[in-house]
Amino acid sequence: MDLPVEEWKSYILEKWALLPKSVQVTISKAETLSDIFLHSSSLLQPEDEMFLKRLSRGYLVGKDPNAPLFYREEGNKKFQEKDYTGATVLYSKGVSHSRPNTEDTSLCYANRSAALFHLGQYETCLEDIVRAQMHGYPERLQPKMMLRKAECLVLLGRLQEASQTISDLESSFAAKPTLAASQFQILQRTLCRLKMKIQKKENLTETVSAALTKAFEDMDLREENKQISSASASVSLCTDPFKGRYLIATKDILPGELLVKEDAFVSVLNPAEVLPLHLGLESKWDTRVTNGDLYCHRCLKRSLAPVPCDGCSYAKYCSQECMQQAWDLYHNIECSLGALLLTLGVFCHVALRSTLLARFEDAGEVTRKLCGDISNKDTRLPESKNLVQTLSYDLGGESEKNGKTVETPIPGCDINGKYENNYYAVCNLLPHTENHSAEYKFLCALSISALCRQLEAASPQALMTGLTSSKLKAAMAPVLCPESSIWGVAMLRHMLQLQCNAQAITAIQQTGSKENIITDSRQVRLATGIFPVVSLLNHSCSPNTSMSFVSTVATVRASQHIGKGQEILHCYGPHESRMGVAERQQKLRSQYFFDCTCPACQHGKHRTTAEPRWEAFCCCSCRALIQGDEVLSCGNASCTESVSRDHLVSRLQDLQQQVGIARKLLRNGKLERAIQQLLGCQHDAESFLSAEHSVVGEIEDDLAQAYAALGDWQKSAAHLQKSLRVVEVRHGPSSVEMGHELFKLAQIFFNG
């Protein structure tokens, strides 16, 4: 949810509609962000704030003392069903609602350690055992947990520690024989079994997959760029009066070459799955598994055993270190505002966090940027790529001064001409103020104003928490003064920037049952971030790069050969393989405020109206493609077949229903019946769909999965190779979709 909740949006738009025409005109024609913010915020009334508070109360982000027992009992049910991942998440939710150093906390950690043990997460299991002990785990329950610890140590090959743990347990039994005879016998048998394991066990080595994952994460740029941080030496930063800033290749670049590896300046986990209490929940405690339960709220690393914030139940982290870093940087301010931030949306949250992070950069620079570039009415950053006169100075290049030609700086670069991943670069991303509608600017300004009112309740000292230098604190004091509008103007600038400059941070998640030998995957949006270097890339509907993420780090690689001097291009979303020209142009115009003139769009405008092959129908007699509007005729001159489009669309819908039935059989493990159903669908599809139709590819992919589940690798590979041909036609040979299919084929070859 990038923007505020629908109720707040509707409320503000209604408020806008009721404003006197003169006030609307004043805000619409305001020339600076400062004017927009001041005029709009003066209209925020107490009743508006009360309405927003009522909406915010729907989000449960505080710690509920009754929740830990509920989540622990729900987790126990999942544990008994052997759904250990589900149990782990529910125990984590219980931990999130528990206060530190309580029995509730210790019991949730101990139960989670048991689930993690069954998932083979032995190191993490040990960490939870330590946490349970730190929070006062009851002594009467210690023996069972210590046995689990010993078993983890054995399985990890840490035999000396395992022997010591067993020895300590035996001493404890002898000193305090408090267990019942039956329990004592069970524990004694377990101890004997562990001792035998220790005698046989050899030290484990790091698995190949773990080593490869680490190697991929640690992969760095071959040669760091001296002009642009986080970029390779193969690219250079240029400017143009119409294109603005952009990157070009300084040499020939091969497919796969790493061009940018940049950590987000700021990122916020996407809370799209968090529902307010009045929407769709049977109880106030949500048992669904969301990305917020599985990924660290600071670094976005996947974690089945998160460490919660001590002050709220929403924020969770992969480690104590991540939690402390988040607290020091921004969460000490955000913690009490959690419900409000969920109500106001991700863009508002990113705007706040960006401004909070500005506190930790050079005080003089931040003060100048906030007070000068943003607040001062006479000092404006360029806000339009069409203003050639402004760009000739503000976007760099050459200009005349006293009869001499001087080179002007590129926005975002320091005095040495270096472009870095810092707040100065973020400030210089265009907010496109003149392109946004007056209603949108009013919504953003009032949302930021409401947030500022809450920030004003905190003292300037709270906002300066974490700043180490007294000189730095003194310099920042005027910037963080609650009476000043600078804080709000800075956040408004960032909120307006995000429509064009926000980057969706994604992850690849496996889908389907973990028991499947062949796994499928899907791309999910985890977070929204700002990447100043990645933002330099211009759009193409047929880009020459691909982007992927590891935690908060974006990597941009060449997806094809890029010649020296050629522009490095990235797709903003509307890709030629997923949308038609008209749809792409509409999307780019409405969100990014430009008309795309890339080769794919130019070619598409002059292309015939024939349907793409992945949507085309074929003649039932000769298999040639058929074309037309209401009635489609065979393209083969010697064939006279024709058919109505309505008839073909109806057949396609019936076929998709039959494929759906086959997939349900496949999910339920009824493989033979699923295969028969899919083969019937395949035969039907061949009679009226082109060989490259996307539904044909989907049927082949489903057949590949079914045969793989039966262990018939030859047939599985044959069907998947047919699916690959459709994917290549639909998405291109170097597409991410092609990569996913090739990985599945690799798994089939390996297993077969």
TrEMBL record:
SUPFAM superfamilies with a match to the protein in the record: HIT/MYND zinc finger-like, SET domain, TPR-like
Domain named MYND-type: residues: 296-335
Any single Pfam family the record assigns to this protein: SET
GO cellular component assignments: cytoplasm; nucleus
One Gene Ontology term from the biological process aspect of the record: methylation
Top-level taxon of origin: Eukaryota
The UniProt record lists the keyword Nucleus: yes
Function per UniProt: Protein-lysine N-methyltransferase. Monomethylates PRMT5, modulating its transcriptional activity. May also act as a histone methyltransferase. Plays a critical role in cardiac development. Acts as a key epigenetic regulator of gene expression during cardiac development via its dual activities as a methyltransferase and negative regulator of HDAC1.
Protein name (database record): Protein-lysine N-methyltransferase SMYD4
Name of encoding gene: SMYD4
